[in-house]
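anyone else get weird line breaks when pasting these?? whatever heres mine. first is seq + C-alpha cells for prot A
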Amino acid sequence: MKAPTSAELTHLTHTIARRVGRFLERQGLLERDAENSYLSGDAVEGGPLDQLLGHSITYRIAVGPHQGRKVFTVRTLPDCNEPLVDPVGKVAGFSLHAGVAARAHERKKLARFCRYIARPAVSEKRLLLLSNGKVRYELETPYRDGTTHVVFEPMDFIARLVALAPKLRVNLTRFHGVFAPNSAHRARVTPSKRGKGNKASTADAPEDTTPAERRAALSWAQRLKQVFNIDIEICKGCGGAVKIIACIEDPLIIKKILTHMDSKAACGAARRLPPCRAPPQGSLFG
C-alpha cells in the first residue's frame, strides 16, 4: 500500500476542518458569516485556565507586563524555504501529518512510535535556567524559520506548565474511530476481542489461558517496562528473576524504612574493619 500524497492529505484535512467547524457551530462556540469564521464571545470570555490555554497554543505571553506579545525566540539557523519532504496537508490552520508509517508486522516500530507520541511535553535535558533568571528551552526539531530556542519569563513558563496540567477526572487516553468504546467494529481490531457487540465464541480463544487470564490487566511492573523500558523483575547484579513481595504506598512506613536503612548503613560504615595488610616480607628476628 502506497503512502498518501499531499493532495490526498489536503482533501482529508479539508473534510476534517469542515466537520470540526460544523460541530463547533452546533455547540455555540463558533459563529460564521459570509466571509469569516470567528469564535463566539462566550467562548472567548473563559476562566483563567482557558486564557492560559489560549496563549499557550498561540505562542504568546500569558502573564506579566508583556502579556499578549509573541514569545521571544532565538534563531541560530538560516531560513529553510525548501518544500516539505514528508506529506503534510494544511487547511485553515489544520495540519495532518503522515510521514511515519509502520507495516502490520513491525510491532517494535509501532511500539516505539506510540512511546514517542506519548512522551512528556517538556524535556528537562533541553531546559536551562539562564543567569538573568529567564528560562531557555531548546527545540527538538528547529522551525523552518531557523528558530532553535524559546526564552520565557519565569512566571510565563509556570503559566505554560499550568496549561499542560490535565483537568480533574479526565481520561488522558482517548480512543476514536474503530477503537472507540461504542464502536461496533472494536472487537474485530483489538487483540483481546473486547468491544460492543462482541459475538466471538470461546473457541477463538487460546486453549492454554482461562477467561480470567485473558481479561487480566497488565501488572504495575509490566506497565513500567512497557512504557518506560524499566525492568524491575530482573536483578541487575546476577540477572536472575526478582519476585515482588509487596508494594508499600504509605508515606510514613516508607519514611521509617528509609530512615532505618540510612542508620544501618551509617553503623556499618563506622564499624568497617581496616583493609588487610600485605604479608610480611621477612622475620622480625631473622
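and prot B, same format (seq, then C-alpha cells)
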Amino acid sequence: MNPAPPAIPVTIDELLNSREERALLQRELLASYSGCALVSFMVNFPGPFKAGEDAVFIHKEGIRALEELLEPIPSPHSEQRELATGREYFRLTRSEPAEIKRICCRLEEGHPLGRLFDIDVIGKDGVPISRTELGLEPRGCLLCGENPTVCRRRGAHTIEELTGRIAEMVRRYREKALYQGG
C-alpha cells in the first residue's frame, strides 16, 4: 500500500458522493460474486481530514487484524481503495453473514483501536447485518459512551476533543507495540 496522501480537508458533498460510490461498488461486488457476503471496512474518523496519518495507521492495523481473523474463511476477492474521504477495504466471504458480523463485532470490541473501526457486513441479499440483530448493544460515543448520534446532533463534543482522543489511543497503541517488540 502507498503512503498516506497529504491530508486535505473533504467537503460534505465529497463525503456524500463517496458514500454513494461505495454503495454502488458494494452492490457490484455482491452481484459479481453470487452467494457471498461482503465485509466493508473503514475508519470512524471525525472532521474533514479523513486520510491523515492516524486514520491511515488505524486502517492498516484494522485490516491486518481483520485479515488475521478472517484468514480461515474462504474469500474469492478483496480490494482496497485509497481516497481523500478515507481508505476503504472490501472482502467477500463464502460464510454465513451473521457469523462474520459476530467476528467483526468482537474485533471492534476487543482490539485497542476497535472503537475506531467501522466494519459493515452485508448479506448475500444486499442487506447489512446490524449489531442489534445479533442481540448486541449499539456502540457508544468515543468520549462519553452515550448515543453518538445524539452527541453529534447536540454538539456535545468538538472535533478537537474527538481527534485528540483518537490521537491518544493511537499513541498508546504504538507505545505498547514498541514495548512488546511489535
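btw re prot B: DSSP finds five helices and four strands in the chain. The domain at 12-137 is CATH 3.30.70 (Alpha-Beta Plaits).
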